Amino acid sequence: MRLNTMPYIAALAVAILLLVPALDSSALELDQIRAQQQTISADIVAGKGRYASMPVSKRNQILAKQTVLLKLIEGKNTDSELSDDQKMEVFNGLEWIEATVNNAENERVICKSEKPTGSNRAQRVCRTVAQMREEREASERLIDRRAVCSEGGMCTGR
Length: 158
Hints:
Low-confidence stretches: 1-26
Distance between the termini: 64 Å
Number of domains: 1
Number of strands: 4
Mean pLDDT: 80
Helix content: 40-55%
Shape: flat
Order of helices and strands: HHHHEEHEE
């Protein structure tokens, strides 16, 4: 006896479509962001905890980044009041601050809006600093390995 699996597949597809918005991790809690950044800046100014031994220039960079970040979300109650570009800027700012505080630059995630080849529709693409560096180095290696072909059809690496 063979079961008709189409109704089950259709039900699964509907369930997935309904769950995707709930799984969207891009929702920003603006009040939590404000509270977290105020705590960090108070600790930086007081020079306590992990910030006590942090160089002054690094502390100033964090405070400057926080100023830009807080100005961006000023007067906003929810992330729905932010444009997609602003949400990305907030996310990238938070990632920068966290990576700087934790001295983990390679693990910092950066999101960009990119248009795939042949499309006018931009997509959000997120990569770590380490992934972006590896992609850049791979591209440079590929360019450096361009083949130089002689008239006889023989190709040698450059």
